[in-house]
Structures are given as structure tokens and as C-alpha cells.
Amino acid sequence: MNNLYHKDIYKFDEPIKSxxxxxxxxxxxxxxxxxxxxxxxxxxxxxxxxxSCALSLAKKYNExxxxxxxxxxxxxxxxxxxxxxxxxxxxxxxxxxxNKHGKQETKKFFKNTxxxxxxxxxxxxxxxxxxxxxxxxNYEVAPHPSYFDSIKEEASLYKNEFxxxxxxxxxxxxxxxxxxxxxxxxxxxYKPGFAINPLKFLLGLAxxxxxxxxxxxxxxxxxxxxxxxxxxxxxxNGHIITANKIVMATNGFYQDDLFPKLNNRILPVISNIIITxxxxxxxxxxxxxxxxxxxxNIRNLLFYYRLLKDNxxxxxxxxxxxxxxxxxxxxxxxxxxxxxxxxxxxSHVNIDFHWRGLVAMTAKLTPSIGKLExxxxxxxxxxxxxxxxxxxxxxxxLSKLIISNSKxxxxxxxxxxxPKKFPFPKLRLFYLRLYLMYCSIIDR
Length: 444
Hints:
By secondary structure, this protein is of the alpha/beta class. It has helices at residues 48-61, 94-101, 103-126, 148-162, 171-177, 198-211, 281-286, 325-342, 387-403, 428-443; strands spanning 37-44, 65-68, 84-85, 138-141, 165-169, 187-191, 194-195, 215-217, 222-228, 231-236, 239-248, 267-276, 295-297, 303-307, 313-318, 351-361, 368-371, 377-381.
């Protein structure tokens, strides 16, 4: 398999050592794949997409489904992200979206995006998943006075064009309801929006999928896929699963050569998170940090942060471009410096946890949901770092596509079809380095 990053980031047999792992009962109820079997549908990847898709297929359509995960259940990015349910899953401006597919299709995209947030919230409610849900909106904060006009424009656009509930706050107003700090010059809020413990949410979904009849296997990495007599032979742990249909749901951890038609269409990008020790009430008051809503600091290389229920502070940022354990430690130290520059009164606060994961970017800058032409291989990936919002909904939409005879879904064109391949794909990290350098210069 071809990997873009250092082998350290692909150690499927090692735990993540994230803060989330300390909040759960670590006894795992899932077996490894150990004998040949047959199924109608095989799902590869037990993140939000794969589990949501498998759950829908089994529960709503009574399908025979096997789900394979390369690590333990809760190893991938679905269980190690920051838990932000925010919008949109796109890395292009609304103006560019309208130029590409028109205003109506852009409105449909945002409608689907809001459906994604509501779908995630409804899963939590329906299955009574205790995942430490906090907040009732998202905040986007201006890191410099020059950003405040664009904050107001975005809030107005969301409200007037897409019917999203927004509210704008001047710096002094946000000081009272959000926080103070060196990079807070006003903000706006939008609904729906909230934050969760992503691992608890994932394990809650996996439990429901298992109850519904999905056969889930962990530590069962797919090593090869062959097609014979119209069926797929999928090899894992030296054994074979014979399936009629395959769902590829590995997102940022997709490894080229598993499905040649999907090669070179994903740019996995490292995202890093640090978490402090619990903050005291006096420490929180020093920056008047009073909100449990998730916050995005809208630099070009944005910071994202939130206060957890136990008063620990989570701070996230774009990661390094190497992927080794050493580069992860180095990046975490730089992030600590960045956090303490934004919140200088916490300069003495220790960092208790640091880890990283992969988000999936695509050349079309929006997610991709669909089916390979002339093959029973289905895919959903490229959530542009908005998986909590988009991936569970996408998995459910994918289940509809698998069951129906239609080749397309009734969702926005922005979600449909494969992205173009990256030109000279071995240079993907070089492209990323140039982009990161450009953004860091602008942010200064």
C-alpha cells in the first residue's frame, strides 16, 4: 500500500492515547476476522460513515452486512477529532460555489449541510447516546479587527440566503458571552451547532449497529481485493470475505491501490489537538471564558477550541506534513505556544494530552458520495474536516443509494461524484506545503 505520510501515523495496532480514550470503559466487545465468510455488503472502515451506513442497511433494509476496521473500534479519525458539529463541509467560498453550480444548487448544499447536523443530533437522541453533548450553536471569531466585516457578511449570507439562524456580536458583547483574549475582535453564531465526545458517539453507534445485526470485526485490515465471477473476494487476516457489494468508508486513512479507480483523489491532511489540565474558576475568569459552545478562530489556518465539561480546554490546529511521532510532538509544542499567545493568562497551564488524526481533502473541495461506474463499489469521503456534521448523514444517504436502483441521490451536486485526481499525485504533500506557507504568510 502507498502511504503519503510517515509509517507512525498508520500504526493500526496501537491505541491513540487521546483524552477521549480515558473517558470510556476500554473493554472492547468486538472480535477480529478469523474465518472465511460470505455477505451481501461489506463495509470497509468503522468510522461514522461506515457504521452509519451499515446501521441503516441492517436496520432499515434488513441487509446482510459485514463491517471491517483496520484498528480497534474507535481507532480512526471519527473517534479522535475535536467533536465539533459545524458547517459547511466545503473549502471554497459561497461565491465560488454559486459560480460553479448556481445559487439553487448552493442553497441545496447548505440545506443538506443543516440536515447533516440535525441527523447527527437525532442519532444521539434516538439511541440515547451519552456523548457529553454541549452547546447549542457554533461561534466564528474574528482574530483581527480586519476580519470583523467578513464575519458580518458571512452571518448575513447564512441568514438571508440559506435561512440559517445567526447573530453577530461586537468584541465587547462577545467578551461577556464567550471569552476575552488576544485574538477576539467580535464573532457571530449560527445554529444548529454543538460539540460531543466523538468516541462515545462512535461507540454508541457501533453498539446499535451490532444490535441490528451488523457483523463487526476490528483489527482486520483489508490487504487485497479481487473480483471473480461477478463477486468480490476481500482478504483480511489471511481469510476471505466474499461479497456482492463493497462500501469504501475510510476517508482520510484511505490507502491508494485498494481500489485503483479511487487512487490519487484524496489529500489526507493531519490535524492536531492538545488538551490542558482542568482549569480553575479563577483561570477561566481571567479570560472570562464562559461558553461551552465550540469556537472557530477564522484565520486562514484556523484554530478551533472549546471548554470541556470537566473544565479542560481543547485547542486544535492544522498539523505537520511529516506524520512521525517526533513531528507530532514538535507540532504540539508549537500549538501550546499558539494557544498561550491567544490566551496569555494561561501561560502556566500544563498540557495533559496531545494527538493527531487525518482529515480528507479533495480537489473539488467538497465531499464525494456515489458509486463507481460499472462496479458495485460505493464510496463516501472528503468531508473537509467536518465529519461530525457530514459523515453520519453521508453514510445514511449511501445506504439509500445501495438499496435503490437509481444511480444518483436527491442531494446537492456538490456532494455527488468523484473528485478529479490530483495531478502528479506524489507531489500532494508538496502542494500542501505551499498552501500552508501561503496561509501562514496571510495570517501574519
